[in-house]
Amino acid sequence: MSIVVGNILTGTVTGITNFGAFVQLPGGVTGLVHISEVADSYVKDIKDYLKDREEVKVKVLSVEKDGKIGLSIRQANPKPASSPSTSSNSRPPSHRPRRQVPDISFEDRLAKFLKDSDEKHQDLKKHTDSKRGGRGAKGY
């Protein structure tokens, strides 16, 4: 049986490493399932997901000239259909109420920001000067 990119095959886990799992495919060839291709969620320890000699369904991702075969378990298993109201780009609904922004112009907001910033600068300067001994203090 030839191994073609995109095919979904059944194989047997023959070895587990900290970076992935080796899977023997039909025909005796072996490919690698990288740890990032094991599950849709973050996989810290691959042994929590796979066992040696376990049969798994894999999708062929790549076949290199040197004979290396890249496989994916997570892409071989179809994802559950999402509802029409949910898209992959949308955020989950927030449970806190949205803040109401008063309808004021940009110039008014900028003026308020500058005033607040200037006040904070003055407070910081007073605080720093008092630690140094004030304006007329002798040097170091």
Characterise this structure.
By secondary structure, the protein is an alpha+beta fold. Among the domains are: 8-72, OB fold (Dihydrolipoamide Acetyltransferase, E2P), CATH 2.40.50; 103-132. It has one helix at 106-132; strands spanning 8-16, 20-24, 30-34, 55-63, 69-72. It has a 5-stranded mixed β-barrel. The longest helix is centred in the C-terminal third of the chain and has 27 residues, at 106-132. The protein starts with 7 loop residues before the first strand and ends in an 8-residue tail after the last helix.
Please render the helix and strand layout as text.
Blueprint: E1 8-16, E2 20-24, E3 30-34, E4 55-63, E5 69-72, H1 106-132
Parallel strand pairs: 3-5
Antiparallel strand pairs: 1-2, 1-4, 2-3, 4-5
Q: If you average the pLDDT, what whole number results?
A: 83
Helix/strand structural class: alpha+beta
Put simply, the count of helices is 1
SSE order, one letter for each helix or strand: EEEEEH
Task: Provide tags for this entry.
140 residues; alpha+beta; OB fold (Dihydrolipoamide Acetyltransferase, E2P); 5-stranded mixed beta barrel; 5 strands; 19% helix; 23% strand
In short:
By secondary structure, the chain is of the alpha+beta class.
